[in-house]
Structure formats: structure tokens, C-alpha cells
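# step 3/5: fold
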Amino acid sequence: MEAPGKVLSRRGNILTIQLDDDVDTDFYTDSVGVVFRDERSITAQQRKFAYAIMADIAKSDIGGFWAGDNKAVENYFKAQYCLDNDLDYISLSTRLGNRTDANEFISMLLDFSLAHNVALSRMPIKELESDFGRRFEYSCLINKKCVICGNSRGIEFAHCKAIGYAMSRKDMNHLGWLGMALCHDHHINQQHTTEWGIKKFMKHYHLQGVPVDEKIAKIYYLNYW
């Protein structure tokens, strides 16, 4: 169950929240999640990136009657976002748009692009804020796309930390290990560019790595238990 409300006070990690409506909490556990929204105005970078992705989708000729029509693509995805999030409208303007909706909207566009092999004109990992960048990295792992170049051929699971000689990749439990999806060329570059190392490689490409879950482990045939 999701109940809207507002934060009355905060002291470190302790929040006092007033719910908008009366909710009978007797049937629910004490474990809750809090979703924070950034209501500051959408940034110019977010807006330009969103329109760039929609232009890429239009160029890809995916989507039936609105293929190739930038405005039709924009109207479709805005309507879909409002439907999915129970909103009356979403704006990408500086006056009406906010950063949370913009990031979520961009994430939806990227998920569609990854699922339909849309060639992107801008590198997403350099355009996204931290939390949404990691979400994109996860989508790349699930859809087997190189997180750097978008290539879908020969995608390999790359560890974000050196395994070491004492541990066998075939025998280790991969759950929780940070990883990313790389094409063969970028994987080789990550492993053998001696003047960089893994940390510098990830910093250069704005990568964070994603903890392996069971879904990722099954896709890449990684051991887990």
C-alpha cells in the first residue's frame, strides 16, 4: 500500500511524517519505504537529453503510425508516463517540470530504447544523475547491452572489482558482487588497460556498478546460492 503525506520534521535518519488521509495501519508491518521527490525545476540537460532520446526513437521507425514523427513520439510517451503514474500531465518546461518526473520519464525512454535496439546519439551514463545512472546500468545488464557504447553483440558480464588469483570465478557466489554489461572490446579494455585500472576505468565512464541479483546471475550463467 502507498500512502501520500508530508514530512513534518527530520533529525538525522528519523522522520516524522503526516499522512494525507486516515489509514488503518493495524494490518501492515512496521517496515515502510519512503519515496523522496525532487520538486526543483527540470534542468536544461535533462530536457535536452529527453528530447534527444525521443528524436532517436522517431528516427528508428519503431511504433507504427507515429514512427518518424517527433511530436507524435513525445505525445505518446508523455501520455504513457501519466497513465503509469496516475498523473494529469507531465511537463518538460522549466516553469512546470520537476527533476523527479524528468528523471523517471528519461528512464522510461531509455528502457524502451534498450528493449527495441534504438541507437542513441548521446551517451546516457554521462547524462543521468547518480540513482538513475545505476538504474540504466541495471537495464543494460538485463537487456545485454554494453553500458558504454550500446552494442548488443558479444555482451559479457564484467566485474567491477578484481577477483584475485585465490578465488575462482566458476566456484564463487556472485550474489552482491558489483558488475556491468560490456561488449568484448570494452571488457578487454577494462581488463588490460594497465595505465588505468578498474577504478579509473569506471570513473572515466561515470559507472557505478550493479549488485548481482538472481535475475542477472541467470542471464549470465553466474553461480549463486
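# step 4/5: annotate
The beta strands are 5-11, 14-19, 156-159, 178-182, 210-211.
# step 5/5: archive (pending)
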